Amino acid sequence: MSAKFAAIRATGPNPVGRIVVPHAAVPAANDDACGSPDDERLRAALLHFAAHGLAAAQNAFDRAEHAIAVGDPRVAAKWTDICRLLDKRLAAGLASRAIL
Predict the structure, then answer these.
(1) Which of 4, 30, 45, 87 is the most buried (most CB within 10 A)?
(2) Rounded distance, CA 96 to CA 74, Å?
(3) What is the reported pLDDT for 12?
């Protein structure tokens, strides 16, 4: 039998067998399993980013600040969440506000 049709062993000293045999899937290195956003929040952040580009995080920050100043905790939480998804450092300034 030619080598082309010979079975490849997964164990032992055969280096080709270790390369060819598929291994278990490894999760992505940048996967944030804990605290990952749900689909609705992520969709809102992506739509906001599509509308405002690189200024989206600052725009969300400004809207959250305005909602805090007006005294609307629900809207402030929404914009703080969007700001946090786009720029965590920028949103850290909003987290200390008493209304949230």
Answers:
(1) 45
(2) 16
(3) 59
- For the chain, the structural domain boundaries read 33-95
Helix (H, G, I), strand (E, B) or coil at 59: helix
- β strands within 1-100, DSSP E: none
> In the chain, pLDDT over 70 holds for what percent of residues?
59
User: Do 67 and 41 contact (CB within 8 A), yes or no?
Assistant: no
Q: How far apart are CA 12 and CA 21, in angstroms?
A: 12
Total residue count of the chain as it appears in this document:
100
Q: Taken in order 43, 50, 31, 91, is the CA torsion positive or negative? A: negative
Residue with tokens 């030619």: 2
CA distance 45 to 39: 10
Task: State pLDDT tens for residues 42-64.
Answer: 999 999 999 999 999 999 999 99
Place of tokens 């999760």: 27
